Amino acid sequence: MDLLLTSAGIRNPSIEAALVDLLGKPIEESTALFVPAGIYPFPGGAFNAVEAMRGGRNRLCDLNWKSLGLLELSALPTIKRDSWVPTVKETDALLVWGGNVLYLYYWMKKSGLADLFSELNNLVYVGVSAGSIVMTPFNCDVDFNRQWVPEGSDIPLDDPRGLGVVDSCLWVHVGNPDPIFEDHNLANVERWAGTVDVDVYALDDESALKVRGGKIDVVSEGNWEVFGQRRSN
Known about the structure:
The protein is an alpha/beta fold. The protein is built from eight helices and ten strands. The strands form two sheets. A seven-stranded mixed sheet has the order 3-2-4-5-1-8-9. The longest helix is centred in the first third of the chain and has 11 residues, at 13-23. The protein is globular and about 45 Å long. The two termini are 25 Å apart.
């Protein structure tokens, strides 16, 4: 499985070209499944999920896919695997929206989707924000995520892990002027990077990580930085 881990979707021609390269064919000839689960814990999450499908500046679902389906992680444990596993295996791209990393991590594990990743050799995983962070070894948003976990939930509040599909960490929306991202600055990224034992990439909304065969390349028409190793380009 190859990955395109974005901060804010397919925002520019360079990121779109990286997606097409990973797919190995035009988007118009590719199928995709959309995973909105991460956005549900936040107020208005149900409406935001539909807005993500409609598209906009943070493009993802509105890229003229050959066909587009919806994969609801919380439904998967209640249906037979034969009803959904073949669909995932036959799909060209898995589009995973942003939101709450802690919640998304929980449902990727509980649904069985995460266990399937090692078998998806022909699939391209496309993450946006939390959908990107969840694939890394550690969740940089875990402190913020905790406040949205309801009392009595079996979501582990003290678990800072991500799925570790890639071996570097990610901090997104760096420099975004929206007040909700006021702490997404390089000083905070560097400070947090000192608490983990892997490289940490800081991406603005015009940047993404392209991961093929475990090798990470930065795709950017904006600004990015990496902490923990010498920046190579």
